[in-house]
Specification:
By secondary structure, the chain is α+β, with helices and mostly antiparallel strands. It is 55% helix and 9% strand. It has one domain: Cytochrome p450 (Orthogonal Bundle), CATH 1.10.630.
């Protein structure tokens, strides 16, 4: 097939998929489809409540199994009779693999992201965060995302991977493009930009692989290169680095940003944090993860027939687990729509998923966010929003593109 024919075929598929989503959402009033359209992306929580009214496990008008229940989400994520289906649009390394390949690849990266290893990064994270706040000191207004929430985790993950001379703006663009592709390719322009970003990263890591083969260091890419052969196949190295890079900062960018938004929208909670930054920063992070997490949903594919909540999930069917809705399940949390730093949670939130695919980077993201919110509260107690928040146009990943603030 010629390039022109491929382009025409791809454009036609995009049109059909968009038309089907619009029809399902606006004509059939399918709430799951509405989540993928702009109003649902702007504020998905009212739609989550409509879906919750359907029951703990329900089939939408389009024939999709979906759950808002904390109990059911947790059960599905941990059930080995469910697995994942690799994305057609992009390689997700072990995120898109089932055991045993998932375990084999994850095992290579685990040591660098363990709780014990991450604890040794605290001083580095605090130094980077302090330097970034020094740069905004004295400025009346600035964008929290570009000035702080993005450069902090980008600096940390690129250092851990061993990527030299990282450019914040470039890597932020990579994150938005690749993170947005989790919802599917939206347009020919999106496809072209995603391909260009993938090519740039392919070139970057190709050169880095060659360098670390001759000059190994104590970084994650060196460990992956050293494992080449039996532990990791050559074709698996690039997707693995893509995943570790993008997942290594995208979640944290949005965790910090969503936390700042939630705190500033609840002045009494912001005041409490500023009065006790060290004591309440961990609670602020956990409550942000429950109240408005960076990742809102995932799905699982039934490998065999499964009976749950009186429903029969057939082999080959998918269950969409709405993690953000589960984190506001009124059967688990009192006053679930309230952001409250004094909350005593009776059950862990599901912001980092669960089961074998529980987020590898959870210890790092949590530590970075705790340090970030503590230092913001210590250094910028007069912080306030200075303009409208521009949120990313995405369903799976939730967070702002820009967050204007003033001191």
């Amino acid at each position: 097939m010629s390039d022109l024919s491929q382009t025409i075929a791809f454009a036609a598929r995009l049109f059909r998929e968009k038309a089907a989503t619009v029809y399902a959402g606006y004509v059939r009033r399918d709430q799951l489809a509405l989540l993928a359209l702009r109003p649902g992306r702007a504020d998905p929580y009212p739609l989550y409540e409509q879906l919750r009214a359907l029951g703990p496990l329900a089939m939408t008008r389009q024939g999709d199994w979906v759950t808002t229940s904390h109990r059911v989400c947790n059960a599905v994520l941990r059930d080995r009779r469910f697995g994942v289906v690799p994305s057609d649009e992009m390689g997700l390394s072990f995120l898109g693999e089932n055991p045993p390949d998932h375990n084999r690849l994850r095992r290579i990266a685990t040591p660098a992201f363990s709780s014990r290893a991450v604890a040794t990064y605290a001083a580095r994270i605090e130094r980077v965060a302090s330097d970034l706040l020094d740069k905004v000191a004295g400025r009346e207004e600035f964008d929290m995302v570009s000035a702080f929430a993005a450069p902090l985790p980008i600096a940390v993950i690129t250092a851990l991977l061993g990527i030299p001379d990282s450019d914040v703006a470039t890597f932020t663009r990579y994150g938005v493009l690749i993170g947005g592709a989790l919802d599917g390719i939206r347009s020919l322009r999106h496809a072209a930009e995603l391909q260009a970003a993938s090519n740039e990263l392919r070139d970057l890591f190709g050169k880095l692989f060659a360098l670390r083969r001759s000059e190994p260091r104590d970084d994650v890419v060196s460990h992956i290169v050293a494992a080449e052969g039996d532990q990791v196949r050559p074709r698996e190295m690039l997707p693995m680095c893509f995943l570790l890079l993008i997942a290594g900062f995208e979640t944290t960018v949005n965790l910090i940003s969503n936390g700042v938004i939630a705190l500033l929208n609840h002045p009494e909670q912001w005041k409490a944090l500023c009065a006790d930054p060290s004591g309440l920063a961990p609670r602020a992070v956990e409550e942000t993860l429950r109240y408005d997490p960076p990742v809102h949903l995932t799905d699982r594919h039934a490998i065999e027939p499964v009976d749950i909540e009186g429903q029969r999930i057939g082999a080959g069917q998918d269950v969409v687990t709405l993690l953000a809705a589960a984190n506001r399940d009124p059967e688990v949390y009192d006053n679930p729509d309230t952001f409250d730093l004094s909350r005593e949670n009776p059950a862990p939130h599901l912001a980092f998923s669960g089961g074998v695919h529980y987020c590898l980077g959870q210890p790092l993201a949590t530590l970075e966010a705790r340090i970030a919110l503590r230092l913001i509260a210590e250094r910028l107690p007069g912080l306030r929003e200075a303009g409208p928040v521009k949120r990313r146009n995405a369903t799976i990943i939730r967070g702002p593109l820009t967050l204007p603030v003033a001191c």
